[in-house]
Design brief:
heterotrimer; A mainly alpha; B mainly alpha; C mainly alpha; B: mainly alpha; Helix Hairpins; 3 helices; elongated
Chain lengths: 80, 115, 252
């Protein structure tokens, strides 16, 4: 049973990782990256790593997409 | 199962590097690099996994708990996740400053010296 | 090197790397079959030796405490690097956004968003403090709890505006927090030297397993690491926020 969960989590991670790379527009990539962070947290949880999943949830869903968006805002503002 | 587990690690690493090589935008490049980095975290945790194991937290366990998974790998991976985010922030700060000086985020158009 | 040449070179290199990875990864024991002897030994011995129930925290802050010290300094230098990179450059200055239409009142933020930000922010701070202090009992600890506390700053910014957030995070306080956390780890390590044992050895009384105060120096180290990581990520947020809202090029 847990093997099936791990297999599903692995496939989800591989698919969202590929999606992150092939999303060329950085603004859309920020959201895809958040989704990838969630997939990673699910994989870590199914591998019985609660500590790592906790860090990954907060970092991958809040910190990284926010700093990507702030960098984009700064870059977009300079362009004008 | 081993093939799937380790294959996903190799796939994520290579696709992340492909994203870095073929990127046209520095911010896109940095996010692809973080995908590559998470592949190493996954490998660490997979090496430490034991089939039928439970988390290495010894409180409120059922009457016959099975073996626990590897706690050393988790200790390595958890600091790696947090520091990976800080280094991603550092690279994004670099990208922002590059844009201010060079006016572009395209790696192909950046030059080492200013004209 | 032109783009297509670079991509072809990458294709060749990636094929070689994939072959090497395949050979290397196939030499690993099959997924889920066994864990190392060191880990098995720690799982057996750590709860009895250190009176903690979360073995991962015991490993991070006691058995391999010196590695965590170095990683904490990596975090400190990354945050310092960000502060240095995002400082106002020679042709920039810090100015608050000016009110270009002073005769019109600013529409107040939506009460629903404001309430959600306040609720989520306070929940995050409480959860973060709980995670930090219970690191030796349940999954958690300084790193996780510190990031949770710092994300309250992010949520506050998302629900309100820059000026509100800036009032609650004076730059000097955040930098002091980061420094106190990093040096606190070294100070607690020096306690070990003062007590006549090795640096970073667990010399404070161990307490009873399952209590909040157990594990000797482990909860203390959790606290200082939590303080440092929270300060570090809050500095990260405020540097990027300053860049977007406040730092602008001086008009020539």
């Amino acid at each position: 049973m847990s093997e099936a969960v791990i297999a599903v989590a692995l496939v989800w991670v591989a698919a969202s990782g590929t999606a992150v790379v092939f999303t060329r527009d950085p603004l859309r990539q920020a959201f895809t990256a958040g989704f990838f962070g969630l997939a990673l947290a699910f994989l870590y949880l199914s591998l019985q790593s609660g500590d790592v999943a906790l860090s990954q949830i907060v970092v991958g869903a809040i910190a990284v997409p926010l700093i990507v968006l702030l960098s984009l805002a700064k870059v977009g503002k300079d362009r004008g | 199962m081993s093939v799937l587990a380790y294959g996903v690690v190799a796939w994520l690493f290579l696709i992340g590097i492909y994203g870095v090589v073929s990127s046209r935008n520095l911010i896109h490049l940095v996010v692809c690099l973080s995908v590559s980095q998470s592949a190493t975290d996954i490998l660490l945790l997979e090496i430490g996994y034991r089939a039928g194991g439970h988390a290495p937290v010894f409180v409120d366990l059922p009457a016959h708990p099975g073996p626990a998974v590897d706690a050393v790998m988790q200790a390595l991976a958890l600091t790696d996740v947090v520091i990976g985010a800080a280094v991603t922030g550092l690279l994004l700060a670099l990208a922002v400053q590059v844009h201010k000086r060079a006016g572009t985020l395209d790696p192909d158009k950046l030059r080492a010296t200013r004209d | 090197m032109s783009r297509s040449a670079r991509l072809m070179f990458f294709a060749a290199a990636a094929a070689a790397l994939a072959a090497t990875l395949g050979v290397g990864l196939s030499g690993l024991p099959s997924f889920g079959s066994q864990i190392s002897a060191y880990a098995r030994m720690l799982n057996e011995l750590a709860p009895a030796q250190r009176h903690v129930t979360d073995v991962v925290s015991a490993i991070s802050f006691d058995y391999r405490g010196i590695d965590t010290l170095f990683e904490e300094f990596i975090l400190l230098s990354a945050v310092t690097g960000i502060s240095v990179l995002l400082r106002p450059l020679s042709d920039e200055s810090r100015q608050l956004p000016e009110d270009k239409a002073p005769d019109r009142t600013i529409p107040p933020p939506s009460p629903a968003v404001w309430l959600l930000a306040v609720f989520l922010g306070s929940l995050l701070v409480l959860t973060g403090i709980e995670t930090v202090t219970h690191g030796q009992l349940t999954p958690g600890g300084g790193f996780q709890g510190g990031v949770i506390v710092a994300s309250a700053v992010y949520v506050a910014y998302l629900g309100t505006n820059y000026v509100t957030v800036e009032r609650f995070q004076p730059g000097a306080l955040l930098e002091a927090t980061d420094g106190v956390g990093a040096s606190g780890y070294v100070v607690i390590g020096l306690l070990g030297l003062l007590a006549g044992a090795d640096f970073l050895s667990n010399v404070v009384g161990l307490g009873g397993t399952g209590n909040l105060i157990s594990g000797g120096t482990i909860p203390l180290l959790n606290l200082v690491v939590g303080v440092e990581v929270a300060g570090g990520f809050a500095i990260l947020a405020s540097e990027f926020l300053d860049q977007t809202a406040v730092i602008r090029t001086r008009r020539r």
